[in-house]
Amino acid sequence: MAGWEGLWYLIGTIVLGMTVVAAVIYFSERISKEHATILIAGTLSGVVSIASVMSSAKFNMLALGGVTFVVAGGSMFWATISLGQDYLNEIYGPKTARSSVYAGFLGWLAGTIMMVWLLNYVPTPPDMLNLTEQAKSVLGSVARINMAAFVSYLLCSWTNIWVFDRMKKATQGKTGFYLWLRSVTSTAAAQLIDSVFFVTLAFAGTLPNSVLINIVIANLIVKWSTSAVEIFWLQPLVNNKRKNESDLTLAT
Fold it and tell me: Is the CA virtual torsion 224, 229, 230, 231 positive or negative?
């Protein structure tokens, strides 16, 4: 399909990202029901760190309807994090979901501190000084993008969890259509905040306004498309968890 080549990359990214996160959630519950939340939060922390690096290191092009959009690499997977947050919120509550956000932030902070220490204070072999200087130059040039990614991540995640929890109470915890409604609404609102804040903080003053708008639109296309179909992974995970809990209750 001429002009729509990016559609297949978009679909592939959504399916891959959602399936990986869903598989982690499923196997975390299977491995240890008592510590599943820790395993899920740890995985989301890793996804956050990788997505942050990719937001700084790589840009992708998506051709949709004859228009070429530019997308920060990490943004292609940011929205899949919402699947984990929504699952934790639905099953374990907003407090646990917020803990996964703090885990992501602390993981990024710890990694940043260690990287700064290694690059700036630990001696480097004389014949490798050029490599170290190149690494410092690259990390320094993307520091603003990296910081923007995490500020927007925190704002986005808090919004997603807050809206989801309020809608869950308003819909009395009903699943099916109501689970889809609260997941897509909370994620869409959160990703709007994420895209606007990230692009503004990361690129304002360095790129033309037309390019900034293009990046925001591209991010929203990816993220809103992901949130619209999240229910196809979220609903089976919720059903499986509640069925296991019901079977356990009957067994006892």
Answer: positive
